[in-house]
Design a protein that fits this description.
Layout lengths: L3 E2 L5 E2 L5 H33 L4 H25 L1
Antiparallel strand pairs: 1-2
Length: 80
């Protein structure tokens, strides 16, 4: 199958609808946001339960790193 190229640089499969693509991108963005946010929340919750103060910031760093890695992976895949 041949891909269609748009002036913006976006490509799509011939059978994919624009609304379907928009929904796919929206779900990716929401998933990346959750990957960045939930480890910090879980770390803060564990901090409050265990009486520590290092798990919240560690969760924040881990979530940010994982989200950033996912964004880089998406960007690399899109450039191919």
């Amino acid at each position: 199958m041949q891909r269609h190229e748009y002036p913006s640089g976006m490509t799509r499969e011939p059978h994919a609808s624009p609304i379907g693509e928009a929904m796919a991108w929206a779900s990716r963005i929401m998933a990346i946001g959750l990957v960045m946010f939930l480890p910090a929340v879980a770390g803060s919750w564990l901090d409050s339960r265990l009486g520590t103060s290092c798990l919240g910031p560690a969760g924040l760093a881990l979530g940010f790193s994982a989200g950033l890695a996912w964004l880089v992976q998406i960007a690399r895949k899109r450039n191919r």
